Prior knowledge:
By secondary structure, this protein is an alpha+beta fold. It folds into two domains: about 20-140, no CATH class; about 190-280 and about 295-480, Heat Shock Protein 90, CATH 3.30.565. The chain is built from 13 helices and five strands. It is rod-shaped, with a radius of gyration of 46 Å.
Amino acid sequence: MTEPGESRAVGGPWWWERRRSAALDVALGAVSSGECAFQGVEFAAEAGVPTAAGVVLGVVAGATLVLRRRWPIAVVLVAVAVSPAEMGLLLGIVGLYSLAVSDVPRRITVLLTGMTAVAVVISTLIRLQQGVGRDPAFDPPAWFIPLVSVALSLGVTAPPVLLGLYLRARRRLVESLRERADGLERELALLADRAEERAEWARNEERTRIAREMHDVVAHRVSLMVVHSAALQAVALKDPEKASKNAALVGDMGRQALTELRTMLGVLRSQQQAPGNPAKPEHPLKPGQPEKPGGGGPARLAEFAVAVAGSVRGGGRERGGSVPVAAVEEKVVAEGPRLGELEALVGQSRTAGMAVELSVEGESSGGYAAGVEQTAFRVVQEALTNVHKHAPGARTRVRLAHRAAEVAVQVENEPSVAGDGAQDAGLPSGGNGLVGMKERVVALGGGFVSGPTDAGGFRVSAVIPAGRARVEGAAGADRARTGG
């Protein structure tokens, strides 16, 4: 048993938890022994026993106060036992306080308090009756002696018991609050770990998304530029007019690739310069001046990924009040290509020497979400890029089907037949094209199938629900992960 406010660290001898507590109890025991020894002298004189016996009885009874923290019941019982001898006032008061503040059941506390009160009342009645018999001049009313006995009994027992019960209740309250605080701390630590995991997941997802977007934007244009360059090299001396036409096409492709790159990087830059998240002023580079390391390009994309992770950690917004991730991603999607540009996309492959046939089935009813159109366009774009890489010169069929609740695209090529203008340009393959297409389609809840055909060619098919945009699917997935 410890006093309220004491440390729980074990560092004292025997049953004491602190050395200071042991010193206090020993001091109280010494004072109580002295008091009981002094009162034992008077008891021995009145009882007709040797004085030494009364002193020894008082010392032993008073010394039991040292045990008040370990055995408070025994201390109170000793105080009750010696109360008829009119000794042990300090022993009884401190014993009752120790009993009330300990973890002893309350019914036992009430029982021992009642026993002590009765013992004090009886002892006081006897002492006052003896006083009346010895002094004839002292003749109080009949109600005086019982009233004084009860008042003295309440004065001796009630204050220490009430104080002990109050401190006991306060100690339990403090312990419960401490346990609750520890529980909340553990809960917060768990939530912090989960938030860190979600932030790491968001960083990885954003890196993947940016890499996929950059792959789709750059790979097709650059692949066509390489194909046209190979054709230009082949016909440069034989047909200067055709070589000039191919050179112009290469320039157009390069300008289109730069335009798409600027669009994407402009969206990322606008996210960083949003209200509440001011960016440092950028100084334009002078002609011929090299770009500073980390000033743009991959470095800016890396900064954007970090910003996205920070916004997830902060509950969808960065601490500076920047634009939410969903808003930035929605802007990226909104500025992406549309299904209406498929004819131009197919035309670019035709000018590169590929025999491409485009067929459209059905009609679009009111248009699709921006993410649906962009995903369908990217699937066709990446499939044509793969044909340029792996089957140059192969006849290719592109099918677009508008249905009631979905849009379907299919790109199928025959085996490669290299010819004039369709030479193998040695385009490298990263092996991520099909993976990126599948990720895009699956993110919208669609289906994606790819594989070789019986005729030796290759087929890519995707079916995308018409009512869900990629941003909406990403936002829903984020709400499911965060429990919102």
